[in-house]
Design brief:
single chain; 34% helix; alpha/beta; TIM Barrel; 20 strands; 8-stranded parallel beta sheet; 16 helices
C-alpha cells in the first residue's frame, strides 16, 4: 500500500507546487535557446523555477496573455545610477544598469554606497578618469559623472590635460588594478575627456586589461586630436587591442563614428575574423549629450545651433555657449543622420546601450528613459528594421556574454530559462514606445507593463512599485594572468 502511495505522489502534476509568482500565458522569448512560444513562467526565491505549457499554481498569478515575456534588459552604458534616474531605467525594462564607459573609483566603496538604493542590479568598471582625477588633484570622486561640475570649479582641467609617465603613470595603473581587484568589470576609459592621455598611457591600460583578461570599455578620442579623420581614433584602440590581445568594447559607435560607421564596422568585423574580441554598442537617437564644461568642448569650433541646453531647451549661440560652459551643465548635441542611425540599430552585432545621463530635476536626454522601448517600438514594430528576437538578443544575451567570463552573476542573466535569475520584463509588442522627448525627457516609456528584478516587481501594471530596492552589485572575480 505504501509503495502505491509513493508512486501516486511521484506522478502528481507539476502544478501541485505553488510558486511565489506565475506569469501565465505570455509569449515567452529567450534569445539563447530560440524559444518563442506561449508558456507559463514560475518564479521562486529570485530565480526562474519552471517554464511550462501546463498550468502552474502561484501565490501571485499574473495574466500575461498577449504580452511578450523576455529577459530583463542589460544596459552596459548607464551613467544615471541614482534613485530617480534608475526609476526611469526600470520603467524602460532595464533590470541591470552598469557604468562601464567612465567607471568609478574606488570600486568597493562605490558598490557599497549603492546598497539598498537602486531598483536595478548595478556595477561599474575601474575608472580611468576617476583615477586620473585622484592622481593629479588628490580628490577622490567615486563616480566622476556626478562630480564633474564641482570638480571643474575646484581643480580646473588639470586632470584632463596632465601628461602622466614614469612613476605617475605606474601609480595610475596601480589605482586601476586595485579597482579591478575590488570587483571592477573591466577598465572604463573615456579617452575623449582626457586629451592629456597620450598613446603610451592608453596602451598601458590595454596591457593591464589583457593581464586580467577583462575588456577595455572606451570612448575613443576626438577626431580633431588625430588629424580630423573619424577613423583614426578607432584605429588607435584597435591597434592597442591587436598589440596586447586585450578585449575591447567601443562605446556608442553611432556618436563616435557618425557617417564613417559602415567602414568602422568593416574594420571591427575584420578584427573579429582574426580572432580578436571586439564588440560595440549604440543608442537609438540622432543626438548625444555630455557636460558642456568637459574637455570635449575645449576650443570648440562646431555649430553652436546644434547644441541644446537641457535646462531650458534653448539652442545655444556663441554668447550662451560661453556663459553656460562657465557655469557647467548638460547639453544635447544634435546633427546626426536618421538613415545612418536606423542602419546602426538594425545591425545584429551592435548591442543596445543607452549612454543614459542622470536626471537633474526633470532635465536629461530622452535616451535616459526611452532607449529600449524606442528600439522595440520604432525600429522593430514601426520601421521593421530588425526582428524582435534580434533586438532582444542585442539587449539581453549579448551584454551578458560580454561580461560572464569574469563576472559570474552575468551567467544567470540575459536568459529566460529555468535556473536563471528572475530578471524579467513583460511588455506589449503592439504598443511599446518611448515617450521621453528632447524637451520633455522625464516621461516613462509606454507598453512596459511589468518588470521584475530578482523576482521582485519594480514595475507592475505599468506603474512603479514604491519602496522596493532589489538591486544587487555585479562584481568581477579576477586574478592576474
Amino acid at each position: 500500500m505504501i509503495r502505491y502511495l509513493l508512486v501516486y505522489l511521484l506522478l502528481l502534476p507539476l502544478a501541485a507546487h505553488s510558486y511565489e509568482v506565475v506569469l501565465q500565458g505570455g509569449r515567452v522569448m529567450d534569445p539563447e535557446t530560440g524559444l518563442d512560444a506561449v508558456r507559463n513562467v514560475a518564479i521562486d526565491d529570485g530565480r526562474i523555477a519552471a517554464i511550462s505549457e501546463a498550468a502552474l499554481e502561484g501565490d501571485a498569478v499574473v495574466d500575461a496573455a498577449g504580452m511578450v515575456v523576455a529577459p530583463g534588459f542589460i544596459d552596459l552604458h548607464a551613467h544615471g545610477l541614482d534613485p530617480r534616474s534608475n526609476a526611469f531605467q526600470a520603467a524602460d525594462g532595464v533590470t541591470t544598469a552598469l557604468e562601464l564607459e567612465q567607471g568609478v573609483l574606488p570600486v568597493a566603496a562605490w558598490l557599497e554606497g549603492q546598497r539598498g538604493k537602486l531598483i536595478t542590479h548595478y556595477g561599474a568598471a575601474s575608472g580611468h578618469l576617476a583615477a586620473r582625477i585622484q592622481q593629479t588633484t588628490g580628490i577622490e570622486v567615486g563616480n566622476p559623472v556626478y562630480a564633474q561640475a564641482s570638480l571643474q570649479a575646484d581643480a580646473g582641467d588639470s586632470y584632463a590635460n596632465a601628461h602622466l609617465a614614469g612613476e605617475s603613470l605606474d601609480a595610475l595603473l596601480g589605482r586601476l588594478e586595485q579597482g579591478l581587484l575590488e570587483g571592477g568589470l573591466g577598465i572604463g576609459s573615456g579617452i575623449t575627456y582626457m586629451p592629456g592621455a597620450d598613446h603610451a598611457e592608453i596602451l598601458a591600460l590595454f596591457k593591464l586589461a589583457a593581464r586580467y583578461e577583462v575588456p577595455m570599455f572606451t570612448h575613443i578620442r576626438q577626431a580633431r586630436h588625430m588629424g580630423g579623420d573619424l577613423l583614426a581614433p578607432l584605429q588607435e584602440v584597435l591597434a592597442d587591442a591587436a598589440a596586447t590581445g586585450a578585449s575591447l568594447h567601443v562605446v556608442h559607435i553611432n556618436s563616435s563614428l557618425d557617417e564613417s560607421v559602415r567602414t568602422a564596422m568593416d574594420m571591427i568585423r575584420g578584427m573579429r575574423a582574426q580572432g580578436l574580441d571586439i564588440t560595440t554598442e549604440s543608442y537609438p537617437y540622432t543626438a548625444g549629450s555630455t557636460r558642456l564644461e568637459s574637455a570635449l568642448f575645449e576650443n570648440y569650433e562646431g555649430d553652436y545651433g546644434q547644441l541644446q541646453w537641457t535646462e531650458t531647451g534653448e539652442r545655444l549661440t556663441r554668447e550662451t555657449f560661453d556663459e553656460y560652459r562657465a557655469r557647467g551643465g548638460w547639453v544635447i548635441i544634435h546633427g546626426r543622420n536618421e538613415d545612418t542611425n536606423r542602419w546602426i540599430v538594425a545591425q545584429p552585432d551592435i548591442m543596445v546601450a543607452s549612454d543614459g545621463v542622470p536626471y537633474i530635476g526633470d532635465f536629461s536626454h530622452p535616451r535616459s528613459a526611452g532607449t529600449y522601448a524606442r528600439v522595440l517600438g520604432k525600429y522593430v514594430r514601426e520601421d521593421h528594421a530588425l526582428p524582435l528576437m534580434t533586438a532582444l538578443k542585442k539587449m539581453t544575451l549579448d551584454p551578458a556574454r560580454r561580461l560572464e567570463a569574469f563576472a559570474p552573476a552575468m551567467r544567470r542573466k540575459g536568459r529566460l530559462q529555468v535556473g536563471m535569475d528572475a530578471d524579467i520584463v513583460v511588455f506589449d509588442a503592439d504598443s511599446v514606445i518611448d515617450q521621453a522627448t528632447y524637451t520633455l525627457p522625464a516621461r516613462r516609456s509606454a507598453g512596459i507593463r511589468d518588470v521584475l528584478v530578482s523576482g521582485t516587481f519594480v514595475v507592475r501594471g505599468g506603474e512603479p512599485v514604491e519602496g522596493v530596492f532589489p538591486g544587487q552589485p555585479v562584481r568581477s572575480e579576477l586574478a592576474p594572468r
